[in-house]
Amino acid sequence: MMIKQLAGAHGFDFCGIAKAQPLDEDARRLENWLKQGMHGSMKYMENYFDLRVDPTKLVPGARSVITLMKNYFPGENTLTPDTGASGSKEIKISKYALGKDYHEIIRAKLKEMICALQEKIGEFNGRGFVDSAPVLERTWAQRSGLGWIGRNGNLITKQSGSFFFIATLIVDIDLAYDDPFAKDFCGSCQKCIEACPTNAILPGKVINGSKCISYFTIELKDEVIPVEMKGKFQNWMFGCDICQDVCPWNRFSKPHQEPEFSPIPEILNFTTKDWEALSEEAFKKIFKRSPISRAKLKGVQRNLKFIQSS
């Protein structure tokens, strides 16, 4: 209970705890997924396989995995930034990328929480991870009782849907563990599968990452997006929220209370022409602390050209 109170005090919305142990079933699924090439050009997914499926390889002597979740849902007024100008197509940017880079913000909160926890219980060995290390966050969230993994591959909570960042804290101390979330509340719903324009969501909760719009607009570094994807992006320039937007459970999403996630003004106000006219210097200055910097100006302009020509 003390850890969950600390999590709330440090800005996290949900906290669950599971026993650290190898994820044998996930290891088999991940190995099969990689063999089928569903990671596309994301070769880093092939690295550190043993670390991904065994927390004791990441933190020697690991006993517990603490999962922390932070809401990033922006509210109705900023669901889909419309930056279309004088007849040009609107430009869509994933909700998670509207504000400052969540890696920095959550990493700082994790460090503060670790220090606070050590003050309470004494020294321990532990590491915090925010989507930047080989950790299967959604599996640990499910094992910690926080929700279930939906057909779209996202962790879904009954209370607030799926617009959450997931952080993981692996420690070498025994704690009181939560029961895994045992039920799948997707039921017979197929909305995410039906809505995905690139057919990236397959039966059995398998996501073909190499066909996801987020993959093409963020991860793919090629100069040209495959021509067979023309007309399928629905004007998503960076990331994609389609499978979450259509999920019935996200009707329960509530606006976040994190000032650092407030939209960067330019994201909401830029016209298509503003995006196209961006200089390298201006891009680096405006988006220095934004997830959009990951695509680089070259990638953003490639994506813009692609959706405008579709």
UniProtKB/TrEMBL annotation:
Q: Which InterPro entries match?
A: 4Fe4S_Fe-S-bd, 4Fe4S_Fe_S_CS, QueG, QueG_DUF1730
Cite the NCBIfam families for this sequence: tRNA epoxyqueuosine(34) reductase QueG
Q: Which residue numbers delimit the 4Fe-4S ferredoxin-type domain?
A: 177-206
> Mind listing the GO molecular function terms for this protein?
4 iron, 4 sulfur cluster binding; epoxyqueuosine reductase activity; metal ion binding
Q: Does the keyword 4Fe-4S apply?
A: yes
- Recall the taxonomic lineage recorded for the source organism: Bacteria, Pseudomonadati, Bacteroidota, Chitinophagia, Chitinophagales
| Organism the protein comes from | Paraflavisolibacter caeni
Q: Which PANTHER family does the protein's record reference? A: EPOXYQUEUOSINE REDUCTASE
User: Which GO BP terms sit in this record?
Assistant: tRNA queuosine(34) biosynthetic process
Could you identify this protein by its name? tRNA epoxyqueuosine(34) reductase QueG
Q: What is its EC number?
A: 1.17.99.6
Q: Which UniProt keywords apply?
A: 4Fe-4S, Cytoplasm, Iron, Iron-sulfur, Metal-binding, Oxidoreductase, Queuosine biosynthesis, tRNA processing
- Record has Iron-sulfur as a keyword: yes
Q: Which SUPFAM superfamilies does the protein's record reference? A: 4Fe-4S ferredoxins
